[in-house]
UniProtKB/TrEMBL annotation, chains A, B:
PANTHER family: D-LACTATE DEHYDROGENASE, D-LACTATE DEHYDROGENASE, MITOCHONDRIAL-RELATED
Cofactor: FAD
Residues that span the membrane, as ranges: none
Protein name: D-lactate dehydrogenase (cytochrome)
Record's catalysed reaction(s): (R)-lactate + 2 Fe(III)-[cytochrome c] = 2 Fe(II)-[cytochrome c] + pyruvate + 2 H(+)
Subcellular location: Mitochondrion
Domain FAD-binding PCMH-type residue range list: 61-270
Length: 529, 529
């Protein structure tokens, strides 16, 4: 009964999608095999779900629906899906928290090269039924694999499934009474599968590093040959020097090399954080203060920069009970189990701030105010919409440069922003040199495409970052939107090595194809034109 | 003139080595091509040098000489050597500081499987002319590539060649007046090429992580196809999320996947360290105190354990001006730019120590005493020789377990040690769970092989570590001596993935073959018997 309903839903989907005429049989057979292998509640074939999984957070493109979403509940489920995908040569895309920004988990367009950047707004929002034509695809959701398998409190470790979010892990640890937490804080809702996939970070990277540090110790991974490996085997010691760590291949692989089904993560002691903030006459003086704070070994956890425009948005949204000066502002956090320690460090910070022309440091009086300040920082993304009012859309850029080049980046990109006529407020993980300019825009009445200045400005920022010895992707990964910069940034040799590894791990090119690197050199060549 | 001398020296070597009759032509031609391509001062063909490069630090086996050592002075030199080795199918082994312990840079034995563990003492020390028969091999020394190419002080980065040592980098930084240092402190004399190759650590891993953290940001690598890549391209931003980081493949690869010719390393602010020490009634109570110190977020830099036997050696050597109690002793370091901060943390440590039954904490009164204490810790390795007197030899083991299993490891291995009749004092990076037992022994008059109990005890320790969810190699790598444990520890799937990556990067199997993983599955199988 459930099956026949599913089958008729499938037909509806299939008739809806343009690929049917191209190669209906393989995907139809694969879907039928999935239906035989899984109970109906583990499969989604309805248009609504397929569309939801076909659209990225913050994307304004029409959805790119897969043929089916499978909700895995175990490693065995993942193996089954891999085997069916390989057998029928169907594109397979793992997905966890769906918070990625660069099109990481979207089914590929049916045509090569993709007719348009899948993330940049095409503005066809209002035609609700419209979708982008996609290649027949199975999306494999790991979000139901959301168990915390073990907490090894003495060892500062947890073993989690890929659908566990960093926030839910931290909530669970608190509930269990452990004074431990996972300190990397990317987007709210991000889950470990995707966090490993993208290899990003958040506001705590100054103190704790990124996902690429030693937070992920072992991973169970399903390979495209159906093998289940554990990159550290049975081991979970804090250190290991047993050859090259194959787990590192999957960090930042954006689901293109294997499917992560469990992870051993390291935890940090949960200690109080104290927030403070101040503002400076210029970005250059803010950078100078930050370099001194880091260089003095004062061990801040977070060092964030917001420019005057960002602060204006925060003031408009009344994110804090007081108004801030609309000038380059540094928000910072220090942590220690001992309040005296933080206070001594903050005294030194006050001196450094004064020396660099900053206003007097405003230090949170208590935990509540610290939380309030950091909450305001995290809500800044939303507040900036008030800067241009209703209908505001955002393209969030993500470059990173050596901190010695950061002031130059901001200054030179200011000219690009001015030239574009757009607003692009800055929120930066300044301690890491990671600058997000949020390009704000609206669609004019009757227009379906974002103004061309938006994509043009984003491209200028990426290229400027590479020119300044930086990267086009500080923490959001590559997906489909940044592939075009990789040859310039990493060089042909490194790109070629990535391609060789991809071919070795996924010889049929079925696993999240076209993410991070183009599927073929021809496609890359054509994308330039 | 120089050439003819070199050629006659070559003939002398060749006549000396047992491989000549097997396949003289390929190596002879390769050596001749190297002589044509390099000035004589970049080539070593003399028996003394070949023997020196054919023996590992702490190894008592007869030397395993290569046919030639090439001293590279540039990336172009490395490319030339790679191309000649590939053209003539000659085994090629990169080597830097020669401080590795597991046979990492030794030429492979001419026979497969190797007749004996290359590191375990065969005791044939006194027959000076005797060597182990080796496969025709080029050793490529990177030790002359010892330039610090750039220091980016504001960014906390240096660009170094692989022959730069961590100590010489730190000395140079101090001379240049930078308040920065590279915090990972493996063996004295270790150079960056090998440090990346082994992926180890040292006494500072509690505070700074290991070589596998984010200390190595980009690497220039020569691949076996002669390509020179830079794993981060032109970028040197602190963070990057541009796909999987190919540089991670070379970390821990022990020179088997590519040859590193320059590295961008991250530096830490140089801040004062304060040392303290105390002892406990048992290893279990020491572990309990250490877990509490870490869990409280007191951010120690180092947490080291020495057992009563190790302390006895230190006392005998008078490494400190006072005698220490011969019981499990924890030596620790805390760092901060602000002395008050360290003092506040140490007050808390004193409480934790007392609570766990430790003796009153002895805190260094000044920098000089801190340096003295840490110097004693570092000299401990030598002092233990006094425990059994002249002729003492050491097999240094290197297991790592989750800290929650450390007391159990020590307790159970104590029984193995007792059973062996040997002395095996402990020095452990206790904060990481990394335990070195130094197995001490002597050769009896007329004996040429180490007592069989030595190898037997080492093997028991490795197996016990794996049983306790640990690893056979905490920081010294695998080389040839630990390969036999990898299948049990990492599992067949992970080992197979390593093998596939090796085959992709070095399809001819010429680059440091048989290190980390066996050259063939057959060889692995035979090694069991």
């Amino acid at each position: 009964m459930a099956e026949s309903r599913a089958t008729s839903r499938l037909s509806a989907i299939l008739s809806h999608l343009p690929f049917v005429s191209a190669a209906p049989s393989a995907i139809e057979v694969a879907v039928a095999e999935l239906q035989a292998a899984f109970p109906a509640e583990q499969l989604s074939l309805d248009v609504k779900t397929l569309k939801r999984f076909g659209q990225s957070w913050g994307s304004f493109s029409p959805p790119a629906p897969a043929a089916i979403v499978v909700h895995a509940e175990s490693t065995a489920d993942v193996v089954k899906v891999v085997n069916i995908a390989v057998k029928h040569r169907i594109t397979l895309i793992p997905v966890a928290g769906k918070t990625s920004l660069e099109g990481q988990f979207l089914p590929p367009s049916c045509c090569n090269p993709p007719s348009a950047d899948t993330r940049l707004p095409s503005g066809k929002l209002n035609e609700e039924e419209q979708t982008v034509a996609t290649r027949p695809t199975i999306q494999l959701s790991l979000a139901r694999m959301d168990k915390i398998i073990a907490v090894h409190a003495q060892d500062g470790q947890a073993v989690v499934q890929p659908g566990v979010g960093w926030q839910s892990l931290n909530e669970e640890l608190a509930e269990l009474g452990h004074k431990l937490f996972f300190p990397i804080d990317p987007a709210p809702g991000a889950q470990f599968g995707g966090m490993v996939g993208v290899g990003g970070s958040g506001t705590n990277a100054v103190g704790y590093g990124t996902m690429r540090a030693e937070w992920i110790q072992g991973m169970e991974v399903v390979l495209m040959n159906g093998e289940v490996i554990n990159t550290r085997g049975k081991g979970r010691s804090r250190k290991s020097s047993t050859g090259w760590d194959t787990g590192r291949l999957f960090l930042g692989s954006e689901g293109t090399l294997g499917i992560i089904t469990s992870l051993t993560v390291r935890l940090a002691p949960l200690i109080p954080l104290k927030a403070a903030l101040t503002s400076f006459p210029s970005v250059a003086s803010a950078v100078s203060a930050v370099v001194e704070i880091i260089g003095a070994g004062l061990s801040p956890t977070s060092l964030e920069l917001l420019d005057g425009t960002s602060i204006r948005g925060m003031n408009l949204a009344e994110l804090l009970p007081y108004k801030l000066e609309e000038e380059p502002t540094v928000m910072m956090r220090f942590s220690s189990p001992l309040e005296e320690v933080v206070n001594v460090a903050l005294d030194k910070v006050k001196e450094i701030v004064a020396k660099n022309g900053g206003r007097p440091l405003r230090v949170a009086r208590d935990d509540k105010e610290s939380t309030k300040i950091w909450g305001a920082r995290k809500a800044q993304y939303w507040s900036q919409q008030l800067l241009i009012g209703e209908g505001c859309r955002t393209l969030l850029t993500d470059i990173c440069v050596p901190i010695s080049r950061l002031a130059e980046f901001v200054e030179r990109s200011e000219l690009d922003v001015a030239q574009s006529g757009l607003l692009a407020p800055i929120v930066a993980h300044i301690g890491d040199g990671n600058v997000h300019r949020a390009i704000l825009y609206k669609l004019k009445e009757g227009e379906v495409e974002a103004p061309p200045e938006v994509a043009k400005l984003a491209s200028k920022l990426s290229k400027l970052a590479i020119e300044l010895e930086g990267t086009c992707a500080g923490e959001h990964g590559i997906g489909t939107t940044k592939r075009k910069y990789l040859r310039e940034e990493l060089g042909a040799g490194t790109l070629n090595l990535m391609r060789r590894i991809k071919a070795e791990l996924d010889p049929l090119g079925l696993l999240n194809p076209g993410k991070v690197i183009y599927e073929t050199l021809e496609e890359e060549e054509e994308s330039k034109t």
